[in-house]
Amino acid sequence: MKGKYAWPDERGYFGEYGGCFVPETLMAPLAELSRAYDQVTKHRTFKRRLSDLLSSYAGRPTPLYYAERLTQRLGGAQIYLKREDLLHTGAHKINNAIGQSLLAHFMGKERIIAETGAGQHGVATATAAALLGMKCTIYMGTEDMRRQRLNVDRMRLLGAEVAGVDAGSCTLKDAINEALRDWVTNVRTTHYVLGSVLGPDPYPRMVRDFHRVIGDEARVQLKKETGRATPDLAVACVGGGSNAIGLFTAFLGDPVRLIGVEAGGTGSDLGHHAARFAGGSLGVLHGTRTMVLQDQDGQIANTHSVSAGLDYPAIGPEHVLLRELGRIEYFAICDAEAISAFHFLAETEGILPALESSHALAEVFKRAPNMNKKMVILVNLSGRGDKDVESVIAYDAEHADEIDREAELSIHPAMRKWSAPTTSEES
Ligand SMILES: *Cc1c(COP(=O)(O)O)cnc(C)c1O
């Protein structure tokens, strides 16, 4: 990137955030990866192969869709959806999985490993490994394996080995530790495909760059569709922050309001959400200095979100800097609001959004009605919701007796009828 937002520096810092906090044994592999990334990805052969795979295999460019019925029902700004949900494997994650796996292939590595929480990044990586004919091991907490049976089966069917991690809370952060351990041991043959804009340098910048195609495409598509390349507002959900950075990077230098949405879970007490900016503090986790949910002793806190992909105690370091500079604003959306947004989009547009993306949608649904009809909102539909159908059904069953649920939400009145038949407000 050029100009004002040209970061990280040579040491991998975004202002005071980021960097490379790893054991001695990982310094050399990370330096090698940095060098290879800088050199290989500049090559014409690499660029052409990546762009071919993204288009003919993954399904890029993804459509930019004007959600007309949604816009009408909310009665304000025009809402455009960037359809990352239509990519192969159902989410933006494949952009990064293919990018890194191809890099590893060019580096002569024959094996890739990855961590996964809900299994989505594991499935994307196992897919890329099969595509490129590489061996693949995915580390996953045994608790997560139990909760995400289908994704475990998908990875195995794709030829990957799923290694259960029975340590700590048996979830994502434990899986990351185990993957790092494997990498140290097998670094000559193996590349570690990290799944978001997290971890030590060069991961945050590398993952960002593999996802910036999202925003770059959206600019061109928006220009073609509306005559102007920039929206008034762009919104994306933020787990580690990769789909958000992928969308926002293209608009950092423009007068576009940018909003990232974290998981507000069920409440503001530590342990009940994954809102790092609302409830976190500076710390070091998995090799990077960033905002982390931790207790007073620096123990990593438990997190909760109805959406597995937003359920992580740290956020990418670049987000911390962009927030500090006032360039991106961050808000939290709670479970109930995300679930309502899921239903509203499904019934209004015929699209089941991922629960992660539903957080971004809920934020948009709050704002659109209060914005001028000439204004344009661009929202990243980071993934499809098929994987979340069971969670949504279970959530609804559990909350069926909370008749006032919709009334509690500060959302547009149209959304309160998400479960009722379409009424005359339409026409
Ligand atoms: C994993 C995931 C996310 C969260 O990850 P980011 O790195 O913040 O993008 C968001 N949406 C979907 C559909 C996901 O699968």
Report the biggest beta sheet as strand number plus sense, adding barrel if it closes.
6 strands, mixed
Number of DSSP E strands: 14
**End-to-end CA span:** 46 Å
Proportion of residues in β-strands: 15-25%
Ions, cofactors, ligands: which are bound? pyridoxal-5'-phosphate
- Low-pLDDT stretches are 417-427
Indicate the structural class: alpha/beta
Determine the fraction of residues in helical runs and give it as a percent range.
40-55%
Principal-axis shape equals globular
Mean pLDDT equals: 93
Entry keywords:
binds pyridoxal-5'-phosphate, disordered C terminus, globular, 42% helix, single chain, 6-stranded mixed β-sheet, 17 helices, alpha/beta, 427 residues, 4-stranded parallel β-sheet
Q: How would you describe what is shown here?
A:
By secondary structure, this protein is α/β, with parallel strands linked by helices. Helices cover 42% and strands 17% of the residues. It contains 17 helices and 14 strands. The strands form 4 sheets. It has a 6-stranded mixed β-sheet with strand order 3-4-14-9-10-13, with helices on both faces. The protein has a 4-stranded parallel β-sheet with strand order 7-6-5-8, with helices on both faces. Strand 11 and strand 12 (288-292) form a beta hairpin. Helix 10 (213-226) packs across helix 11 (242-248). The chain is globular. Bound molecules: pyridoxal-5'-phosphate (PLP). Residues 91, 93, 120, 196, 237-244, 309-310, 354, 356-357, 382-383 line the site of pyridoxal-5'-phosphate.
